[in-house]
């Protein structure tokens, strides 16, 4: 069955426009869902809506939403209140401006959609806009109403069409500075950085979504299948789980990862002795505990 668009309208740049349709880029892959079960009877548990103070059962159809503006005190909102502030679903997706693709931090990207031509009319305009955006290396910023909420979107070319990605607002994103403050102050050893860069180059490759399978869900499905067959499933150790109790010699670990020898050089070999102060500093960094904040 053909996928149905979640929005239809016109994409416009200045006085140029074309009919477009917005489609969801992801689908429900049949994620595993569970119900709460009474283990004594095998029956599902029914959640009862009740008044928190009187414990009187209530019908959801009679409830209203409330905003808590101070402790246990609410301003009540009706459906009519929400209707008055709802943004009208415009059929026009006007491009407001263009920005460099790398000027948007990936942390601001939210959900992805496909923006495709809606019918044959204006298909040539769509193709011209897509190619112009691609060749300039820009992304177009616009707005669209999805599920009664207006969202800012970034349009970028991909797979011969345009991808529309909703963007978080600044107030949606936590400030990273206090979280990364200690990490940003950590001094690095240039030699270790160089070894790490060599390791990165050795393990560089092309991105393949199949490489990032959800291993937990795979094992969970295997567990369910085994239970249905009356079998069990062995608990496997995660080979990627690091030993957090070990203080690692970082230089030795980097060299070992690159396949270099960490043994002492033989007599007669030319060596470059690192300054004692610098070596001590490197060892101190590897074993130094996290700094406590006042």
Describe the structure.
This protein has 294 residues and is an alpha+beta fold. A hairpin with a 2-residue loop joins β1 and β2. It is built from 7 helices and 12 strands. The chain has helices at 79-85, 123-136, 177-184, 190-202, 215-228, 250-257, 276-287, and strands at residues 7-13, 16-24, 37-38, 43-44, 65-70, 73-77, 92-94, 97-100, 109-117, 138-146, 149-158, 161-167. The protein is extended, with a radius of gyration of 29 Å. It has a domain at 7-28 and 88-172: Ku70, Chain: A, Domain 2 (Beta Barrel). Mean pLDDT is 81; it is low at 264-294. It has an 8-stranded mixed sheet.
In short:
With 294 residues, the protein is of the alpha+beta class.
Give structural attributes:
294 residues, alpha+beta, Ku70, Chain: A, Domain 2, 8-stranded mixed β-sheet, two-stranded antiparallel ribbon, 25% strand, disordered C terminus
């Amino acid at each position: 069955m053909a996928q149905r668009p979640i929005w239809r309208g016109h994409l416009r740049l200045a006085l140029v426009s074309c009919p477009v349709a917005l489609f969801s880029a992801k689908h429900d892959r049949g994620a595993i869902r569970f119900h709460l079960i009474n283990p004594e009877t095998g029956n599902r548990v029914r959640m009862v809506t009740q008044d928190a103070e009187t414990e009187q059962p209530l019908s959801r159809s009679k409830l209203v939403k409330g905003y808590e503006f101070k402790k246990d005190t609410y301003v009540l909102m009706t459906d009519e209140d929400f209707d008055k502030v709802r943004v009208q679903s415009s059929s026009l997706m006007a491009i407001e401006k263009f920005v460099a693709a790398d000027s948007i931090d990936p942390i601001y990207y939210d959900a992805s959609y496909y923006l495709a031509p809606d019918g044959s009319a204006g298909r040539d305009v769509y193709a011209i806009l897509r190619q112009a955006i691609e060749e300039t290396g820009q992304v177009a910023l616009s707005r669209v109403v999805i599920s009664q909420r207006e969202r800012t979107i970034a349009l970028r070319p991909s797979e011969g069409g345009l991808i529309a990605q909703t963007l978080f607002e600044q107030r949606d994103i936590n400030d990273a500075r206090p979280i990364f403050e200690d990490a940003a102050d950590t001094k690095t050893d240039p030699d270790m950085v160089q070894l790490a860069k060599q390791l990165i180059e050795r393990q560089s490759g092309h991105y393949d979504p199949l490489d990032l399978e959800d291993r937990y869900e795979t094992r969970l499905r295997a567990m369910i299948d085994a239970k249905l067959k009356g079998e069990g499933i062995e608990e496997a150790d995660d080979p990627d789980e690091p030993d957090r109790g070990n203080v690692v010699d970082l230089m030795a670990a980097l060299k070992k990862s690159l396949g270099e020898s960490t043994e002492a050089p033989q007599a007669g070999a030319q060596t470059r002795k690192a300054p004692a102060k610098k070596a001590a500093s490197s060892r101190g960094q590897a074993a130094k505990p996290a700094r406590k904040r006042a």
